[in-house]
Amino acid sequence: MSRPVDLWLDLRSPYSYLAKDPAYALETELGATLRLRPFSLNLATIANLNDPAALQNGLRKVKYLYADARRFATPRGITLLGPKKIYDQRLIHLAWLFAERSGRARALIDLAYPRFFKRELDYEDRGAVGMLLKEVGVDPSGFDAFAAGDGPKELAAHQQAGETAGVFAVPTFVVDGELFWGHDRIDFVRAKLLSSGPRASRPAS
């Protein structure tokens, strides 16, 4: 029986980008059911925007994190350019959920990540996000209504579910309630799936 694996991602996060393809492999290798879920990381916890000294320290940390992520990305042929500003991920996460309604969420994610980190896609540009939806085969005509209506509630529900599960950063894998934080924890996730094995079906009462 297929085992569910929740993977919480932020489309601004370079480490989330690095986790995506190895996570896909869990499905083909182990028959896991991977569920990608949006989680909005609050970058203010890294760079305090209201305190100049803390901001400088935070920016140094962000600079290091990108350098560290590139150590993993470069051998895989992945480009990670630091963004020119701190982007709001809300619009692109809403587009993710909208695309999910048509079964095209992964297609959107697969295009969004490389373009964002090559500075080819502005996550706050509604027109660009609409074109991205169209490119992955989703009619964008209903997106504005979704973004103003049910979308924010769905996005908030995912965020709350992640926090309830104990998620505090991205990427985070959750298998049978156990958390594995970091793209480089994929081997622990694989070991968890292999050691636990599929859960036995409960006998009918």
Q: Could you walk me through the main structural features you see in this protein, from its secondary elements to its overall organization?
A:
With 205 residues, the chain is α+β, with helices and mostly antiparallel strands. Helix content is 52%, strand content 10%. The protein contains 8 helices and 4 strands. It has a 4-stranded mixed beta sheet, with helices on both faces. Helix 3 (90-100) packs antiparallel against helix 4 (105-117), helix 3 runs parallel beside helix 5 (126-135) and helix 3 (90-100) crosses helix 7 (150-165).
Unreliable stretches covering 5 or more consecutive residues: 198-205
Could you say which structural class the secondary elements and strand pairing correspond to?
A: alpha+beta
The largest pleated sheet is described as: 4 strands, mixed
Tally of contiguous helical segments: 8
pLDDT averaged over residues: 91
Order of helices and strands: EHEHHHHHHEEH
Helix content: 40-55%
Q: Give the total of domains.
A: 1
Superfamily (CATH H level) name:
Glutaredoxin
The side-by-side strand order for the widest beta sheet comes to: 2-1-3-4
Q: List how many beta strands DSSP finds.
A: 4
Beta-strand percentage? 5-15%
CATH topology: Glutaredoxin
CATH C-level = Alpha Beta
Cα(first) to Cα(last) distance is 20 Å
Kindly provide the radius of gyration, computed on alpha-carbon positions and rounded to a whole number of angstroms. 18 Å
